[in-house]
Amino acid sequence: MAIAPADRPRVKLECLRLLATLRLDPARTRLISGFVDTYLQLNTRETSQFQTSLVQAQLQEQEVVMEIVTSWMREGMHEEALTLVLRQLRRRVGPLDTAYEEQIRRLSLKALEDLSEALLDFTQVAHVATWLQAHQAPS
Fold it and tell me: Does some domain include residue 93?
């Protein structure tokens, strides 16, 4: 995208404001907002300008745009936790069965945090299976 650096925060806010007015289902909103975030990644100064503009936005739009931004943060935190837990598990117990990986990918952020602590005591893949079974990872 050929957007002048000075305009990037404003363009990102306008894209999200427009997205908020469309009232799409959550999955489509996440898809489009992810696209916007990918192609309009802001540096620290631009992020500060974006946040300032967001505060000045009308209350209703601000609430919806903040929900979109918050969902990015939650997804980012989940992805980071998932990546870290999988790396730690592979290093601790060796390669994981695909079925176990899939169960782990479906865990909530809280469950991933719990698993990250529990895995410190694991010495074999069977410990992963036991933990997943005990914590009823969704199918």
Answer: yes
Residue 134: CB atoms within 10 Å = 9
- Nearest-5° Cα angle at 31, 81 to 7: 100
- Residues 131 and 97: beta-carbon distance below 8 Å: no
The pTM of the full predicted model, rounded to 2 decimals, is 0.52
Sort residue 23 into left (φ over 0), alpha (ψ -120 to 50) or beta. Answer: left
Structurally, how many domains does the chain consist of? 2
| 127 pLDDT tier (thresholds 50, 70, 90) | very high
Cα(83)–Cα(66) distance, rounded to whole angstroms? 26
* Boundaries of domain holding 26: 1-57
Task: Note the pLDDT of residue 72.
Answer: 62
With beta carbons less than 8 A apart as the criterion, state whether 36 and 28 touch.
no
